[in-house]
Amino acid sequence: MPDTCGRVLKVAQNTLCNSIPVPQTSGSREPRLLFLTVIRRCVITSALTSTRVNALSVGIQSLTLNLTYGIGSTYGHISYTAVEFAGINISQQAIIDASNASNPILSYGVDGIVGLGFTKLSSVDAALTKSGKSDGKSLLYNLFADNPKEPNFIAFALQRTLEATGDVEGSFTIGEYDDDYKDVANSPKIPTFPVTDPTRWTVLLDAFLIGQGSVALTSTVSGAPSDKAVVMLDSGTSYTYAPKAVCDAMYGNVAGASYSSELGQWMVPCSAEVDVALQFGSSVYPIHPIDVTPVSLSDDSLCVGSFVPQTVSVGAGQFDWLIGDNVMRSLYTVYDFGDYDSTGTTMGDPYMQLLALVDPNAASTEFHKARGGTASGNITYNAQNVSSSASSATAAAASGGTSVELSAELTSTLNKLQGYLPALLAVMALNALVLLVLAGAGVAYMCRRRGKARARKTPGRQSGAASPMPLQRTSSFGMPSGSGDTHVYQPVSMALTEDTFVPPSPAFSKGGLREPSGLRMDDRPKSVA
């Protein structure tokens, strides 16, 4: 098929399985039918007995729904049916038993459409929940709940062909990777935005690279970082719908390109190679140039820009870009719904993983082989410095908080300062120690000066000398004697030194005994000593 037409994917992953036609709405101008083999590690044991989801019986309820999709609509009663899908049996699956449906995909002979999004987006589940029921979960939710120990993801490999009559092979798997792309398990996990309980598969795009440069990103989504874009990767959309400034930056500088207001797309010379890439985190994912300017459906001598400068009414306010198959053909895309906890009752937060499938230099050669001209060489993209605030902003949005964004220059400066942080802390600790030593020395010095000052104020007092006690003559009974006159203080030395010591007098004698000197013994001086 031409590279602009809807793709037919035919997978032969296991000879025991037959192909299952699973219709999807394209969300764009042309429909496509995906012939997919759905595989699960635990159920590939026998050939499937049906080529479609097998609804064994239908129990019609009183509730009705009228739904409008990107293309088409449906009306009918909400019903329950037992479903067998890829060897897994669901005893009671909520569906719409459509009495009126309009969609181009129905012209391919299919019986219905299977959604691959979150249960939160299901109108069936919302209607049943409002009526007090909790059994309106999506088919994928019920498939994962059937075996909580199995991985809860789906994966797409969408391919292309440059031959008008060629078929392409792609893959759609549940619970395991395509053998050719198992390396995706080592790819970074890209959290959804918001992180917890998202409505759609929306993530933060960190940069959009065009040649050697990039285009500034903005977002109108509440809570999103100002220098990021919230994008949704949708396998049901053929083209990518992006802001006008992005599309103008892509095609506006291409020689001979012009914008067609009638088509609402850029018209680009088919030989003009436009090299672009997406950046999530620090990983860069080149887009094949053949998908950036596909051949026009109305005139195969003209090519159109597959990045369309239009807003999408569906999901308004929830994302800035709607990324479709023109980008996803360059990626192996994993949608992980979150693994169950140890109890098998609660799922973790969802995330995505991407694996780049395009070598830009090889893609340039393929492009010019099909379109003419000379291939480019040494194609490189200058990955942007991603601020570390992206994850915190995502968490803030999930919790309804306010996020603060840092510029790339400020982030770089902070990262450099972080390297010097240990040395700065060591210098600060040394300074603190020096200050403590100086403060201690100052306190000791002030205490010494205060002691000397007190000593100067009391000169008659020496260290270690006791203060003289007041002397008062007492009687033999220990009470004051005399007439009660006020005692006059007389200092008495208590120092027992050679120059002041007087030997005691001999004992008293009776009868006026006299010493040889002629003095009476009772005439010696009275002493209180």
Automatic annotation (TrEMBL):
<keyword id="KW-0378">Hydrolase</keyword>
<feature type="region of interest" description="Disordered">
    <location>
        <begin position="453"/>
        <end position="488"/>
    </location>
</feature>
<protein>
    <recommendedName>
        <fullName>Peptidase A1 domain-containing protein</fullName>
    </recommendedName>
</protein>
<feature type="transmembrane region" description="Helical">
    <location>
        <begin position="420"/>
        <end position="447"/>
    </location>
</feature>
<keyword id="KW-0812">Transmembrane</keyword>
<dbReference type="InterPro" id="IPR001969">
    <property type="entry name" value="Aspartic_peptidase_AS"/>
</dbReference>
<comment type="similarity">
    <text>Belongs to the peptidase A1 family.</text>
</comment>
<feature type="region of interest" description="Disordered">
    <location>
        <begin position="500"/>
        <end position="529"/>
    </location>
</feature>
<keyword id="KW-0645">Protease</keyword>
<feature type="compositionally biased region" description="Basic and acidic residues">
    <location>
        <begin position="520"/>
        <end position="529"/>
    </location>
</feature>
<keyword id="KW-1133">Transmembrane helix</keyword>
<keyword id="KW-0064">Aspartyl protease</keyword>
<keyword id="KW-0472">Membrane</keyword>
<dbReference type="InterPro" id="IPR001461">
    <property type="entry name" value="Aspartic_peptidase_A1"/>
</dbReference>
<dbReference type="InterPro" id="IPR034164">
    <property type="entry name" value="Pepsin-like_dom"/>
</dbReference>
<dbReference type="Pfam" id="PF00026">
    <property type="entry name" value="Asp"/>
</dbReference>
<feature type="domain" description="Peptidase A1">
    <location>
        <begin position="1"/>
        <end position="346"/>
    </location>
</feature>
<dbReference type="GO" id="GO:0006508">
    <property type="term" value="P:proteolysis"/>
</dbReference>
<dbReference type="GO" id="GO:0004190">
    <property type="term" value="F:aspartic-type endopeptidase activity"/>
</dbReference>
<dbReference type="InterPro" id="IPR021109">
    <property type="entry name" value="Peptidase_aspartic_dom_sf"/>
</dbReference>
<dbReference type="InterPro" id="IPR033121">
    <property type="entry name" value="PEPTIDASE_A1"/>
</dbReference>
